[in-house]
Design goal:
Layout lengths: L7 H17 L1 H11 L4 H29 L5 H17 L15 H15 L1 H10 L4 H28 L2 H19 L2 H4 L9 H32 L1
Helix pairs in contact: 1-6, 1-7, 1-8, 2-5, 3-5, 3-6, 3-7, 4-6, 4-8, 4-10, 8-10
Length: 233
């Protein structure tokens, strides 16, 4: 799907990519802080800059690759199912384990730590952003270009907002469910099994995906919290 810069669909998709990046980048901001906490102030700035630059470059390459192969039969279906799981997991309370990550006392050690950790944790982001881009490289690169500076320079503020306003996480999970529903429904393999459907069908599938994620996520969240309360008592 190709978008025109003057099209409202283009800007809606860009907004989706930015929100997805914000919601799914909280752990990455924590990793950056942990990896550089033992560096001197001057080296810390350099470590954050080069670590983020390397991680972002790697993520852009992975996301572009994912967008290029996303139109192969059944890949969007599999990616959509995985994205549903990611969205539900996003809503569940985290265990108090912290991040098992050692701080580095050397600049390039910290940079390597940031890049490797970001690569390991970026699968959810890559799948979600590629799905929201609908196969458009222009949209993909534009959305990433807008969202990356926002995440890098506002990561701590974003973390604070997400802690203060849990509804941001809920809305983000619903958005991921919406993207997942559209990914599954527009997969070439799935479309080959279905009769011709109206143009609004992908939006309906996205709405069903959002409701499914929020409903299942809320149910699992209540069960986990209830079990934790029992263990505390």
């Amino acid at each position: 799907m190709e978008f025109d810069l003057s099209s409202s669909l283009f800007w809606i998709a860009v907004g989706q990519i930015i929100l997805i990046d914000i919601v799914l980048s909280g752990d990455n901001a924590v990793v950056i802080a942990l990896a550089c906490r033992n560096l001197s102030p001057e080296q810390r700035r350099k470590g954050i800059f080069w670590g983020v630059a390397g991680a972002v470059s790697l993520r852009v390459v992975l996301t572009v690759f994912a967008a290029l192969v996303m139109n192969l039969p059944w890949l969007k279906f599999i990616g959509g199912l995985l994205l549903v799981w990611i969205a539900i997991k996003l809503m569940l309370p985290e265990e108090e384990e912290g991040h098992d990550l050692d701080a580095s006392e050397h600049l390039w050690g910290a940079v390597k730590t940031i890049v490797v950790a970001d690569f390991v944790m970026s699968l959810d982001n890559v799948i979600a952003v590629a799905g929201a881009a609908h196969g458009s490289l222009l949209l993909l690169l534009f959305g990433l270009a807008v969202s990356i500076p926002l995440i890098v320079w506002s990561s701590q503020l974003i973390l604070h907002w997400m802690e203060r306003f849990p509804s941001i996480v809920l809305f983000g999970a619903g958005l991921l469910g919406y993207v997942a529903g559209q990914m599954i429904f527009t997969d070439p393999g799935v479309l080959g099994l279905l009769p011709p459907l109206p143009d609004w069908s992908p939006k309906a599938a996205g709405a069903v995906g959002a409701l499914l994620v929020v409903g299942v996520g809320r149910w699992l969240e209540k069960r986990i919290l209830a079990r934790q309360d029992v263990l505390v008592v």
